[in-house]
User: What shape does this take?
Amino acid sequence: MARASRAIWGLALALTAGSLAAQPQAPTAPPAPVAPVAEAPPPIDVPAPEPTIAPPVTKEEVAPAAPPQAQVTEKRVEDPTRRTRYDIAVIQALDKVTAETLRFEAAVGRPVRWKGLIFTVRACERSAPDEAIDDSVAYLSIDSQPRAQPGRATPPAREAFRGWMYASSPGLHPMGHATYDAWVISCRAASPARPAAPAR
Assistant: This one.
């Protein structure tokens, strides 16, 4: 009985082993090749270069180079033509209230009264020949002073304008007065013209 059961068990094992051996097996991938590890080469000893010695610098190398003689030219400064000064300024004045205008002449250094204004011309010049614009320029002092009323003291004068007026540009330095306006027309000579004094 024991032998018979052993034989059955042996037969069952043999059949199981045979069925397993008969099944197809999946192909296995070949192992990946292993790259050889390269070893680092040993360090190379490189000798340090010897220091170079620069030659000394001479004074000729440091001194500035002289320009070529052909390019050396002395710049001549020509004496600029001065403006000519005149003795009389021609001025035009306007009363803004009555629209009355008056053109008059004022000698240099002599005050001239017109209504409530006193004009004193300090200088009157015309443009020099080398200037681009032919112009007349006058330096004026204009004081505002109403005429004295009978039985009353003369009111003090107040400065209404002081500076240069240009005949070609009356709006450049205008007189700021509520009642009157004035501008330069030209300059003329009462005597032979004399050159302007040099600027200081």
